[in-house]
TrEMBL record:
Superkingdom field: Bacteria
Coiled-coil ranges from the UniProt annotation: 410-475
Record domain Thioredoxin: where: 608-758
Gene name, Swiss-Prot/TrEMBL: resA_4
Signal peptide: 1-25
GO MF, any single term: oxidoreductase activity
Entry keywords, A to Z: Coiled coil, Signal
Record GO biological process: response to stress
Protein name, as recorded: Thiol-disulfide oxidoreductase ResA
Pfam families: AhpC-TSA, TPR_8
UniProt entry tagged with the keyword Transport: no
Keyword Signal belongs to the record: yes
Amino acid sequence: MLRSSFNRSFVWPLLLILLACPLAAEQAKDPANNQDEPSNEIDNILEGHSLHGDVFNEGPRQKAYLMGGTGRVRFPISTEDPDVQKFFDQGLGQLYGFWYLEAERSFRHAASLDPDCAMAYWGAAMANRRNADRAKGFIEEAIARRGNADEREGMYIEALAAYVKFDSKEKDKRNDAFTKSLENILLDYPNDLEAKALLALHLWESKSSSTSYIAANALLEDIFEVEPMHSAHHFRIHLWDKRHPEMALDSAALCGPSAPSIAHMWHMPGHIYSRLNRYQDAVWQQEASARVDHANMMRDQVMPDEIHNFAHNNEWLIRNLIHVGRVHDAVDLAKNMIELPRHPRYNTSAKKGSTSYGRSRLFQVLRTYELWDDLIDLANTSYLEPTDDESEQIKRLRYLGLAHFQTGNTEAGKAQIAQLELRLETLKAEADSVTESPSEDTDQEDAKKLAEKARKELKSKTKKLEITIKALKGHEAIANQDFQKGYELLKDTSDVDSVYLARVQWQTGDHDQAIKALQKIVDSSKNEVYPLAVLAEILWLSGKKSECKSVFDELRQFSAQIDLDIPVFARLTSIAEELGFKVDWRIRRLAADDVGDRPPLDSLGPLHWHPSAAPNWELNDVEGNRHSSADFMGKPYVGIFYLGSGCLHCAEQLQAFAPRITEFEEAGLGMIAISTDDSKTLKQSIDNYDEVGLPIPLVSDDSLNVFKAFRVYDDFEDQPLHGTFIIDGNGKVRWQDISYEPFMDPSFVLAEAKRLLSQDSDPRSK
């Protein structure tokens, strides 16, 4: 394995210490040790693992670059290398923007340039404060280099050390220790803006009923008086977000421009505008965030959900697109979220990532805006396909049944009810079979507790199913024009759109109460176009033309981005004409005068994430035959980056994938393994497999140029990593795993490849 001067800067001091130690010298000479020569612990480190311990295994292992636009930071540190200072400042700016992955990358890059810089490790610890084990590991490295730091830096190191020594059960002690430590820094260094920023952030993060928001805000004002564009605008938005959002309007205007390369800094003002029901301004902010995130990820080959707050921004953007009537964009973005690569660590249907958020928001927008045919069509694609998740599958059947009833296909709707009723019978049978008899591993009391827990879970599932069936029978009654029965069945069930329910109430003939219900919804959903549009329509149909015009006038104030071809709005066209409005009754919106300078959205990046092109490559196999990425043009393939015949984990990975090669081929996927071995050693990997030989072609990349091109490489320690990729027939990277350990689940890779590649036949992917 290749090792860099960065490694040696850590290793040589260790070796010198050992050689200077008499005990170590005596042991090295003692024949009882049965060693012909001293052992080297470095040789025992697994391929792909860091030389410096487990804490360095995870996180980014590719070098950073100075990207600019990460905020104005004033935090001088002890280093003789000006680039170390620049990367440290960049990391701190990224930390202020909650861009933790890139913050750690910048701090680790600073450490690679100056391994003795204590504050580089402090920064990496700060970027991992929500991961206690890693934070402790990094702060230990900073403490070990405390002698290279000045007094002020030492106080920062000690402050964080005091924080991480307490676990989550000692939250009050931990928070109190950090508060006091930061205050001590300010007592000695009253002009330290970053101490003020970190204290303000900590006061928000650790807030309790006794926290003074006014005091925290005053601390932030001190910063802005010196540096008006400081990234702490982000912290003021968080401070006032759920209390008095108007207090952060100035920061909402400045947050994005203060650190324009960080997507989350564009997103956070959307919180303030959303709280104030300024949805068009919120949409602009969240769209800016999505575009910046997409541009960064596509440029730097980072998978979307590796950025922890990425999915949160996009799902909130979809909600606000619904509020302003940008329905087509809401559908497209929800579909794009579902399209995104999934990974067991950070994006699955069971986790709150793009997959779950995208599916939830897609159902929401299709239901809200009556896009029933689209819902039915998408249920037959990878977007809203059946799932093994029981609650999600029940939701799918409910929405699909609703869509069929709304389009008049009552038989298809009843088929969804039948499926739900069958599930209900199965659940009831399971509940009846629950026993309290103990197994060999449990006693009588434990058996009773387990049985009771099982019964409660089954009871909860049974109740949800019964409610779902009741709701669908309500929709069935409505489809059969029995509005009163439908209303009675729906009004007491959960997850029924309140606007839709009021419309059904109107259809029962109870016009006045239905209008009151709609007006109440409009009042509680201020400035949202959907309830306003339905109220205007219902008032018109009720003969209340004057009231209708008043509501229509209100709707037009927020109509600039409405998609007029959507059924809810299309039904207003004739009403608009009779009221004297134009066919296109929308009003152009002038930009608010308190939102700051906004760049053109297109200049920030694309609205949707798209896969990036894989690097081209040409390599030889053991026979000297040339293989290249061009061989796979038009055919998707799985690429496995393999750390040579000496890597046992790699051998296990190939032995896991090789028996499944036929399944991959039947799915239209090729496969190749790219090895660090030279052509001679490559043969050993093939011979090690079995008598028949390894069915996966192996090619040599002993120069490591292809490893580096795919970023399957630790730039900090000059060593290759493990990597697995799905690359489509157009040479685009659809999925990747780069890690200190190989990806060992061929079933997941095969299923994910099928899902991703099936999107190529879906309209959205073209």
